[in-house]
Design a protein that fits this description.
This protein has 376 residues and is α+β, with helices and mostly antiparallel strands. It has a 7-stranded mixed sheet, sandwiched between helices. Helix 6 runs antiparallel to helix 7 and helix 7 runs antiparallel to helix 8.
């Protein structure tokens, strides 16, 4: 590997020495045994694109780097503690603002340059088929002369797969830290594809539920809309990161091959962002359609209730009319049924026919009145 590499990220210079024996082969450093770091997932030192050493601790990694000229360290950490971050910051002179972001996490995707060190924040996504939900995680990268530090705050992406892929292509890995950054970006963007497919399947299911009249579909539309918005916040800012990297192609003399790789990643990401934007608009339309269908269903229910209430009122009218008709003869009969001595009709020979005729007259009159008012 040449002592000095070109990079689109930063001007990389040699900062380590490599001891060589008489035959010109590289000799492995003799390091004192050190206790392994619990949150150190993998640490490797590479020369000429091949893994030279696999230190078990940060201290061993530092020692190996100091003894090897032109080597590159790739350090992978998972939710590191403050002491580990402080150790890395002291060894590689990381900016304190970037260190604070790496510790606290919860950052938006971005790219920051601090001298000859690049700090990149990515948000990976993973679709959980069992729960039909999208899980998001955060990844921080420090890229500098002869080192790559990855800090994961979640399960995605699978950086072990990225490392295996790069180690299987020594020529690519020999291009230095910028090649590792490309590989990580590619892994993150490729991880978006299953998420897009999962969201599309969920939207298809929701469309079926909407027209099927599922009462719980409104809640699912809202939850899926939140996931789509969160996905947009993860993917869209990454376009700005790639644009910033592309802007440094000329300044930092990026190799043409790496430029093509990054443009390919940008193309894939653009497709993802466009599809997710379409999903958001589609969900808004589905929500509007669902609201219309719910409103129509409510109107149908109100019409049904109104019709039932009208029928009930008609029945009440009929019952009330017949009750009034039957009440009239009852009232007359009650009056004449009272056993008072001084009632003028008691000794009248036409009293009984008169009472019956009066009852019939009142009943017929009430029947005619109610019939004209459509109560009967």
């Amino acid at each position: 590997m040449p002592a000095k590499r070109r990079a689109f990220l930063l001007p990389v210079g040699s900062r380590h020495r490599v001891p060589a024996d008489g035959s010109g082969t590289t000799a492995a450093p003799a390091a004192a045994p050190t206790a392994p770091d619990s949150r150190l997932i993998d640490s490797a030192v590479y020369t000429r694109g091949h893994r030279y050493a696999a230190p078990k601790s940060l201290a061993e990694t530092y020692q190996c780097l100091h003894e090897l000229e032109g080597a590159m360290a790739w350090i992978g950490l998972y939710r590191p503690n403050t002491d580990q971050i402080a150790s890395l910051a002291a060894e590689f002179r990381l900016h304190h603002l970037a260190v604070e972001d790496a510790i606290t996490a919860h950052q938006r995707p971005k790219l920051e340059r601090y001298g000859d060190t690049l700090f990149v924040v990515l948000r990976a996504a993973r679709y959980d088929d069992d729960r039909e939900e999208v899980e998001f995680s955060e990844l921080h990268l420090f890229i500098g002369p002869g080192f790559v530090i990855t800090v994961r705050h979640g399960e995605a992406p699978d950086l072990a797969a990225v490392r295996r892929r790069m180690e299987a292509e020594p020529e690519m890995l020999a291009r230095g830290p910028e090649a590792v950054l490309y590989a990580v970006l590619d892994q993150v963007v490729d991880g978006y594809a299953p998420v897009v497919a999962g969201l599309e399947n969920d939207i298809d299911e929701i469309e079926t539920e909407v027209f099927g009249g599922d009462p719980k579909v409104s809640r699912r539309i809202y939850e899926l809309s939140r996931e789509v918005v969160e996905f947009q916040r993860a993917a869209r800012p990454l376009l700005g990161v790639l644009k910033a990297l592309s802007a440094g192609f000329t300044k930092y003399g990026t190799e043409e091959e790496l430029q093509r790789y990054l443009r390919d990643v940008a193309d894939h990401l653009t497709q993802v962002v466009e599809r997710v934007d379409g999903y958001r608009h589609l969900l808004q339309n589905i929500l509007a359609v669902n609201a219309t269908l719910v409103s129509q269903q409510q109107n149908e229910e109100m019409r049904s209730l109104t019709a039932a209430s009208y029928e009930q009122n008609e029945e009440v009218k009929k019952v009330s009319a017949w009750a009034a008709i039957l009440f009239a003869p009852t009232l007359i009969g009650t009056i004449y049924g009272m056993n008072f001595e001084n009632m003028p009709e008691l000794k009248w020979s036409f009293g009984y026919p008169f009472a019956i005729a009066l009852m019939l007259l009142v009943c017929v009159s009430l029947f005619v009145i109610f019939k004209r008012r459509n109560w009967l």
